[in-house]
Structures are given as C-alpha cells and as structure tokens.
Specification:
By secondary structure, the protein is an alpha/beta fold. The chain contains three helices and seven strands, in the order βαβαβββββα. It has a single domain (about 1-150), classed as Rossmann fold. About 20% of the residues lie in helices and about 25% in strands.
C-alpha cells in the first residue's frame, strides 16, 4: 500500500492513523522505518505518539539510540540505528528485555541492526519525490495484515 504525504502534517497524520488502527495494543509488534535522511521517519513517529497521548518532545534518538515512551496500555521503544557501526552493538543496549507483549518497537534504519532485531510486522519505506513523500507500507505477519486492514483512510479522502 502506498500513501502520499505532501506535508509534514500529512506524515504525522499517517502516524496517528497507524496508532488508531492498532487494535491488539498489548501484543508485541515491530515496525521498521526505512528511507533516506529527512524522508519523514521521525515525523511519522511523532504523529503516532501524539495519537497515543504523548505530549513530550519527540525527536530522533540519533545520539541516545533509544527512547522509551509509556503510553496508556503499552510502551513504545523508538530506536534510530543510523549511528551503529556494527549490528552487534545492539546487544549492549539490552533491547531483549523489551521484546515482549506490552511493547511496540518503531525502528529507524533497521538495516543497520540486521540479524539482531526481531522480524517486523510492518515495514514503512519512505521515498522523497519532487513534490511529496511516498510511504510504502508492507506487511510481514498476520498481526501486520490485521493492523494494515484496520488503517482508516486519510482525513482528506473522507
């Protein structure tokens, strides 16, 4: 499925729609966010977290690598792996303790953690176009298929 975002607001709105579409909030889930720098990955995460009631500043954890947000019914682990030099560096972060029900992982630059991350339920691939960003959403699991199936249409098309 392809979504077109013509503005930062459109990208945040897609993040919010994804948050609202997630029905099994206690089930462990993983989203991979791929694409070049500035393509909108963190903007989507911000929209997702805002829809979950997070009002704190949401920035890419480029230097901390991981940020944890407590939502009402689950916790979100937001990771930016851009600065990883070796996937094995992930082992030192202790991510395994958060690979369980009650957690959702939003992983930017997942290719940098190849072989050290759980498989994704959804992959969102961000592409910069001349006048917009295209976001391709691909499912990889039954949970991902259900989640994408619940995705409401954009506000502008209602």
């Amino acid at each position: 499925m392809r979504q077109i975002a013509r503005s930062e607001q459109d990208t945040e709105e897609l993040g919010a729609r994804l948050a609202r579409a997630r029905r099994a909030v206690r089930e462990f889930a993983v989203l991979f966010l791929t694409g070049e720098l500035g393509a909108g990955k963190t903007t989507l995460v911000r929209g997702f977290l805002r829809a979950q009631g997070i009002s704190a500043a949401v920035r890419s954890p480029t230097y901390t690598l991981v940020e944890l947000y407590r939502c009402a019914d689950f916790s979100v682990l937001h990771a930016d792996l851009f600065r990883l030099r070796d996937p094995g560096e992930l082992d030192a972060l202790g991510l395994r303790e958060w690979a369980q029900n009650g957690y959702l992982w939003l992983i930017e630059w997942p290719e940098r953690g190849h072989g050290h991350l759980p498989p994704p339920d959804l992959t969102l691939s961000f592409h910069v176009l001349s006048d917009a960003h295209a976001i391709d959403i691909q499912t990889h699991s039954t949970l991902g298929e259900r989640w994408l199936g619940n995705l409401p249409p954009p506000e502008s098309s209602r």
